[in-house]
Amino acid sequence: MVLGIDFGGSKIAAAAAGLDGAVAIERVVETDAALGAAANLDRCLELARGLLAEVAAGPGCGGAPVHLLAVGACTFGIPHEHGVALSPAIPGWDELPLARQLAGAFGVPVTVLTDVKAAAAAEARAGALDGADPGLYLNLGTGLAAAIVQGGEVVTGAHGASGEIGYCLRTPDDVRIVAPAAPARPILEDLVSGMGLSAALAGVEGDGSSPARRLAASEVFERAATEPALGSIVRQFLTELAFHLVNLTIAIDPDRIAVGGGMVGSWDVIGPALHAALQAHVPYPPELVLGAFPYDAALRGAVDAGLQLAAQTAVSQEVAVQ
Length: 322
Fold this sequence. Notes:
Helices cover 38% and strands 19% of the residues. By secondary structure, the chain is an alpha/beta fold. β1 (2-7) and β2 (11-17) form a beta hairpin. It is globular, with a radius of gyration of 21 Å. The two termini are 25 Å apart.
């Protein structure tokens, strides 16, 4: 089997799949950023080992150990040999050599991708971006990011950071040309993301029994129609998101845009707003669709990466024997 792991800002998901790609079992635990990088990695390893033990105890194995061939993992941020860049969600994640730690824990080959690129690859292989050239994947979750699909392949960029739109400037006032030492500016992800929505809600009262900052994003969007304070926050959120999506769309000219992530639970509100903006302001408006795997595309992409690595390893071993 292969193991797929998705490290997210709010949850860690793992899945075990056979070589035919069929997922045998999948489990999820919450991320606790306050515990730091090492503790969250340990939480993942415990989850994955428990998952493999469940598979081994199942009817297909009869208690025999699972023959794990490879691990495909994805994470927020840009993974490299010595850590994960652009990963402020968990303290210490930027210094965590994730691939090396996973390889040491499981003793098999490991590949690590950026989560939004893993999700885009899954949608391009057998999802909403299949046949779209170019295609654009937009992830609306704890953070904000996009990925470009060209010729069926995800564009990585020179440093693996293509599509990291969470770092976009918001206004001309954010440009630091004359005074580069000026105070740090807020980035787009600080406002247009699950984290941004939570920050905007801080201090806003809900129904009188609980503060609105504790509401799930889906409940915020649902109540925005009848509660002016929430309605104002949601309108500002959607306006800024649409502004940047329109500019990105004009730059890329995609055939289709697929959207996924935890916030698409409110697609009935988000979708029409984005569609209207694209139709009004893009010279050649693309098709806008909900992702085929709206909540687990990144995990599917991680499993696919594990399968590809297992196949490559098998070929290399066969060549070495010959």
